[in-house]
Design brief:
Helix Hairpins
């Protein structure tokens, strides 16, 4: 009989057969010795199967411990990935806010440049094409040559100041655009990192689910083996007790048979 064939139903059948022997009177005990030897062999195989299962349980327990550790490591990796993704998302949102501010500054600066450029063009048109306008005419109407020189210098200075203002605004606009380009590039890099981090997080969560399933499977196998060992150990106890009882009754039957034969011998001697 194979050790693995000693499942609970077969062991139960052996126990039932032994129980039947216990109620058979007299001559049936003549065969008890052979039956006991056979059942003891069954019991040995049952014990061997229990040992094998216990070894398998020890390995399954080690596998479960390893699976639990792997799951804990996976959960930590997922937590780190979630935190990193939140950090990147926060930086990207801040970059977008800063970029929006700079874009607003660009629009304002560009509008100021357009306004100053329009004023300068109007000034040039009024004073170098059409002559002095109302606001500057009194300056140019002076008869004193020195006054005229001073007025011309003033107008030249006024035009130069407006040009310098426009150039300054252009410099500001150029710097604002440069900063906006840097922030835009950083935002794009953060968006790429965010996408990569989302993919990484998804991979880690998939791995976490796989490890959870593996742990659950190992736990189910371990529980099944424990249940089988418990059942076999109960059969082992019952089978051992029945064998012990059968052996004891066989000894009693043998003693009674010996006493009967001794009594018959004494009776025969008495009659002789």
């Amino acid at each position: 009989m194979s050790p693995r064939s000693l499942k609970s139903p077969i062991a139960g059948a052996c126990i039932a057969a032994l129980a039947a022997l216990l109620v058979v009177p007299g001559p049936a005990f003549a065969q008890a010795g052979g039956e006991i030897a056979e059942r003891r062999s069954d019991l040995d195989e049952l014990k061997q199967r229990i040992r094998e299962l216990q070894e398998e349980m020890a390995k399954a327990e080690a596998d479960r411990t390893s699976a639990q550790k792997a799951l804990v490591d996976s959960e930590r990796s997922v937590s780190r990935a979630v935190r990193e993704l939140a950090r990147i998302e926060g930086e990207r949102r801040n970059a977008e806010k800063r970029l929006a501010v700079l874009e607003g500054e660009q629009r304002e600066t560009a509008a100021r440049i357009d306004a100053r450029r329009g004023e300068l063009a109007d000034w040039v048109r009024r004073h170098y094409v059409h002559g002095a306008a109302d606001g500057v005419a009194p300056l140019l109407s002076a008869r004193d040559p020195n006054q005229l020189a001073r007025d011309a210098h003033y107008l030249e200075h006024l035009g130069r100041a407006r040009l310098e203002l426009i150039e300054g605004l252009r410099t500001d606009l150029s710097e604002t655009r440069r900063r906006a380009d840097e922030i835009s590039a950083r935002r794009d890099r953060l968006a790429t990192l965010e996408s990569e981090q989302r993919d990484r997080q998804q991979q880690l969560q998939t791995e976490q689910s796989r490890r959870k399933a593996a742990l659950a499977e190992v736990s189910r196998e371990l529980q099944a083996k424990k249940s089988e060992v418990d059942a076999l150990q109960q059969d082992e106890q019952r089978l051992g007790k029945l064998i012990e009882t059968l052996a004891r009754r066989a000894r009693l039957a043998a003693a009674r048979e010996a006493a009967r034969r001794e009594a018959e011998q004494r009776e025969a001697e008495r009659r002789a």
